[in-house]
Amino acid sequence: MTVRHFVTWKLAAEDAATRAADVEGIRTNLEALVGVVPGLRALSVHANSLYPENNWDIILESELDDAEALAAYQVHPEHLKVVEYVKPRVTERASIDFAV
Question: What is the pTM of this model?
Answer without folding.
Answer: 0.94
